[in-house]
Amino acid sequence: MPTPSMEDYLENIYKLIEQKGYARVSDIAEALEVHPSSVTKMVQKLDQSKYLVYEKYRGLVLTAKGKKIGKRLVDRHHLLEQFLRLIGVNEEHIYNDVEGIEHHLSWDSITCIENLVDFLGKNPEIVEHLRLLKEKTEQEEIEDLQSL
Predict the structure, then answer these.
(1) Global pTM?
(2) Which residues 6+ apart lie within 8 Å of 14 measured at CB?
(3) Which residues define the annotated binding site?
(4) Model confidence at 1, in pLDDT bands (50, 70, 90)?
(5) What is the pLDDT of residues 49-79, one digit of tens each?
(6) CA-CA distance, 143 to 137, in Å (whole number)?
(7) Taking 90 as the threshold, does the pLDDT of residue 145 lie above it?
(8) Binding site for Mn(2+): what residues are annotated?
(9) Given 1.10.60.10, 1.10.357.10, 2.10.109.10, 1.20.1440.130, which CATH number is that of 74-147?
């Protein structure tokens, strides 16, 4: 299993290849906001772990194993974004929240969240009920603060 750091790289490499058709060290460094030398070191580790094939000065290609995990990581990220939106998390917090939790959930938890997202998608009245409950709770918090 890849480490959380390896996951971040694989997820971003997969996305870059999907968007551009390729992923260069400089593109990965920019996407992850790290130095190119850090990318080169990680790419070499990912090559040793058979997630990709890296040839210095020629670029990299994800292996079947790397593509499978990369897609799974991108899907996990999108699922968690969708879940947080459904439960009413403010849009400005979603990206950082997903980044903070995605590596700490088991794949069993991800499957359960996926089932819940699917269920909520088929039952929009429950999502609306959650939205109203959140609004009520926020209003009560405001009223409590005003009474201090």
Answers:
(1) 0.85
(2) 62, 66, 67, 70, 71, 73, 74
(3) 8, 11, 77, 99, 102-103
(4) confident
(5) 999 999 877 789 999 999 999 999 999 999 9
(6) 10
(7) no
(8) 8, 11, 77, 99, 102-103
(9) 1.10.60.10
